[in-house]
Write a structure and sequence with these properties.
By secondary structure, the chain is an alpha+beta fold. 61% of the residues lie in helices and 19% in strands. The strands form 4 sheets. A 4-stranded mixed beta sheet has the order 3-4-6-5.
Length: 423
């Protein structure tokens, strides 16, 4: 039972075996049970050793992200941070030797101006703010790295002109500190849910086995009681017969002794079985206490005490509501998009028909020398076609009246008229 307690307490902190396969403390294997292969797991070594190894790996990464020499004239930074500094200088056209800097992997600030140094400190200050706002599984290592960033920024900002100071590129550190933090947080989160489910399933199976054993033992006890009652009745009948007839033969005395001996054996068996039943009940109570303690009691989430079952239920409901809201927004957007496309199409179609009608009406070839003239014209624009017909009446040399109409392939008409006066 002590081993089970240790495992249940440790499980929410174990990293996924799929990620740390070389340092895994859990071995998965399959065992045949009634022609079926069932997945099992066993622990190869203690959780404390595993946790210490992972902690040392994370601490080493934090420490190597920024490191300086003893005299304070040289500092080595991780490759992602070094490249951010070079890119910032390039974006602000601060230096002309950036390609050489990137190739050699070092920045010599001896001849840098105050403006160029300030550009570097801006990058360090931004890195400080991002890391300060980032949640990390190792608070102390994060605080040490924040101190190194602030110290490096202050050193560069307060350095005198022509003072020797060199920044080197640590090309062995290729991952950003933010990627490492996100990776560690994902591993811790992904393990807690899957392992707890496996523990709950294993304990449930043990409960079923215990209940099955209890049922079998209770049945055995009942059978023994029935046998004792039967034998006690037989003893009474034999004793009554002996008392009434006063006949005590050697055979009857032997038979009575055997019956008594068998009764004593059965009583001993009953006592042993009752003792076993008490032990089973005690184990059941202990397992129930473990379940109440590690699967139901409160635990800490972001500094708040929460019930495990209630917390999982709230996470599920929150995920369900978010998914429903996203689907609703997506459906509304698709409906709005469809309606907008239809309206644009209708407007475009009407515009094309109007342009075709105007084009046909504007090219009616009237005869200006005649008193009355009429003309027919046709116009086309994109997918629209229109037929126009018009008349012109010349009242005198200075006044004339003109009217025209057009019919397009949408069965709509466009009409126009006008009076012209000249002098």
């Amino acid at each position: 039972m002590k081993v089970n307690k240790l495992l249940i307490v440790s499980l929410p902190l174990i990293y996924s075996t799929n990620v740390f396969s070389n340092n895994s403390i859990i071995e998965t294997y399959f065992k045949s049970d009634n022609d079926k292969y069932i997945k099992h797991q066993k622990y190869l070594r203690s959780f404390e050793n595993f946790k210490n190894e992972q902690q040392e790996r994370i601490d080493a990464y934090y420490r190597s992200y920024i490191s300086s020499n003893d005299n304070g004239e040289e500092v080595t930074v991780a490759k992602p941070l070094f490249e951010e500094i070079v890119q910032s200088l390039r974006n602000n056209n601060q230096r002309t030797d950036l390609d050489l800097i990137k190739k050699t992997g070092s920045i010599d600030l001896t001849n840098y101006s105050k403006k160029e140094k300030n550009e570097i400190t801006k990058v360090l200050d931004q890195e400080y703010k991002r890391l300060n706002n980032k949640k990390s599984p190792d608070t102390q290592a994060k605080q040490d790295l924040l101190t190194d960033l602030k110290t490096l920024s202050r050193t560069i900002k307060n350095s005198a002109e022509n003072e020797t100071f060199i920044i080197y590129n640590n090309k062995t550190i290729t991952k950003s500190i933010f990627d490492v933090i996100d990776h560690d947080l994902r591993m811790i989160t992904s393990v807690s849910q899957g392992v707890l489910i496996e523990v709950e399933t294993e304990i449930e199976g043990k409960f079923k086995n215990i209940h099955s054993d209890l049922s079998q033992k209770e049945h055995s006890i009942n059978e023994n009681k029935k046998e004792i009652n039967t034998q006690a009745t037989a003893i009474g009948q034999v004793a009554k017969s002996a008392y009434e007839n006063k006949i005590k033969t050697t055979t009857q005395e032997k038979t009575l002794g055997e019956v008594k001996e068998l009764a004593n054996k059965n009583r001993k068996n009953i006592d042993n079985q009752e003792e076993t039943l008490d032990k089973v009940k005690e184990i059941t109570n202990e397992n129930k206490e473990l379940v109440d303690k590690y699967l139901v009691n409160d635990f800490q989430v972001n500094g708040e005490s929460k019930n495990l079952t209630s917390h999982f239920n709230s996470l599920y409901m929150e995920s369900f509501l978010n998914r429903e809201n996203i689907n609703s927004v997506r459906n509304d957007f698709e409906h709005f998009k469809h309606e907008t496309n239809n309206r644009f199409y209708k407007v475009e179609k009407r515009a094309n028909q109007g342009i075709a009608s105007v084009a046909a009406m504007s090219h009616l070839p009237f005869t200006d020398s005649a008193t009355f003239s009429t003309a027919i014209g046709i116009g086309n624009y994109r997918n629209a076609t229109a037929l126009a017909w018009g008349m012109q009446y010349r009242i005198n040399e200075n006044i004339k009246v003109r009217a025209s109409t057009a019919w397009n392939n949408a069965n709509s008409f466009v009409s126009a008229g006008g009076v012209g006066i000249s002098w």
